[in-house]
Amino acid sequence: MSDKFDIIVLGGGPGGYAAAIRAAQLGARVALVEKDRTGGTCLNRGCIPTKALIACSSLYERIGNARKFGISAENTTIDLNAVIDRKNAVVEKAIKNLEVVIRNNKIEIIRGTGKVIEPGKVEIESVESGKSTVESRILILATGSSPAPLPGLPFDRDRFLSSDDILDNRTPLERLDIVGGGVIGIHFAQFYASIGCKVTIHEALPEILPGVDEEIVGLVKRVLKRKDVNILTGTRFEPSKAEGETLICVGRVPNLSGIEALSLKMDKRSVAVNDKMGTSMKHVYAVGDLASKKMLAHVAFEQGVVAAENAMGGNRTFSYDNIPFAIYTSPEIGCVGMTEKEALAAGKSIKIGKFPFAALGISQAVGEIEGKIKVVADEAGTILGVHILGPEATTLIGSATLAIKNGLKLEQLAETFEAHPTYSEGLQEAALNALKRSLHILN
Ligand code: FAD
């Protein structure tokens, strides 16, 4: 006899565990089926491990500048073995914390590979306990995505590596080719270049970081070039010419294995969903990388919550408007809303405000003077987008998101007090600049 639940969630990454937790909070009896470790790509192979690595390389770089701060720290070295051990410990801790939250919400974690055999019925296969089935009226699919190889060039874990493979590399690399200048490729370029590896990025499109404001891309290219990163754009990577290890970061493909029996309507390679995260089949929802136009953990969290609330009788919708994103270069990038180019292409008359971090007292004091904040607003002053390269950009973008989501105007941002001296003053100053009322730079 199979176990019965109100909701079965297939996949324990950000989309799946957020859905499970929200459904449990609303009183559902929930099973969370996961074939691997809890936390999905984000905790195990994505957001958290990459940032744990970059934390080490950034500190290493900063120590390299110690003399400017009156500190002598000669002959500093970085031990990749210790860096990977620390990364693994960070991941381990994050998974343990998450599992406590999941269990305290009285969610049953079922370990094994799930296969939907018919609507509402999932067969689970695990090495320890063999096959079993679980049933529920509602299914939330959250099986995520996996690295896409280059056509005709499978990952071999030796010369042609995926982002999963390189995360545990303990061998210092003299050189690394990275195919793909998107966010994931740039994260690894940042890490390896900072620890002394000669990195070449190969991007087939005319520019790296598609979708990022052109001015910010220009700034980040300058930063990367200073780290001796070779950026080749508009050229196809030729595998036969690769000399050492090559990291392939050309996108990710949704994981459809285990859900084929449902014959769901597709949207290209993803499961098609409506704005309530419902699929073409009643009582079946899909969230996160499996069904998303933006493969981001915070998108997956929100989609999971929306699906869970709707599954429990709610009426929530998900929108792709104004989703912020963070890129952990050094300095960081944070962006939300329309770029200048997008606003112009949408036929808007726009106002632009800019402020360089070098003009902030805190930047001078801390020695973080690189970068700028750029605000895009429409003619009436409504803020459409904010684009930042600079210290703590990934945190600063939160205030910008709040402003845009609530339809704030330049005046409201300009007249909001910011503590002095802080990087947040830059946001206020960028709004003042758009209004031709700058205090610390000339208009
Ligand atoms: P996943 O996290 O992929 O989880 C899906 C889960 O389902 C997996 O645990 C898988 O084992 C399980 N599963 C699949 N099939 C089955 C089955 N049949 N039975 C049981 N279990 C199954 N996003 C950000 O927002 N910020 C970042 O800084 C960021 N950095 C990233 C860096 C890298 C290197 C990578 C690769 C990704 C990064 N991402 C980042 C993207 C982010 O990790 C994903 O968008 C997010 O993890 C998607 O969540 P998900 O729940 O949809 O899928």
Describe what you observe in this structure:
With 443 residues, the chain is α/β, with parallel strands linked by helices. It has three domains: 2-146 and 253-311, 3-Layer(bba) Sandwich (FAD/NAD(P)-binding domain); 160-248, FAD/NAD(P)-binding domain (3-Layer(bba) Sandwich); 325-434, FAD/NAD-linked reductase, C-terminal dimerisation domain (Enolase-like, domain 1, 2-Layer Sandwich). 33% of the residues lie in helices and 24% in strands. It is built from 13 helices and 21 strands. The strands form five sheets. Strands 1, 2, 3, 4, 5, 6 and 16 form a seven-stranded mixed sheet that branches. A five-stranded parallel sheet has the order 8-12-9-10-11. It has a five-stranded antiparallel sheet with strand order 17-18-21-20-19, sandwiched between helices. Strand 14 and strand 15 form a beta hairpin. Helix 1 packs parallel to helix 8 (297-311), helix 3 runs antiparallel to helix 4 and helix 3 runs parallel beside helix 6 (183-194). The protein is globular. The chain binds flavin-adenine dinucleotide. Residues 10-16, 33-36, 40-42, 45-47, 50, 113-114, 142-145, 163, 184, 255, 257-258, 288-290, 295-298, 300, 326 line the site of flavin-adenine dinucleotide. Flavin-adenine dinucleotide binds at residues 10-16, 33-36, 40-42, 45-47, 50, 113-114, 142-145, 163, 184, 255, 257-258, 288-290, 295-298, 300, 326.
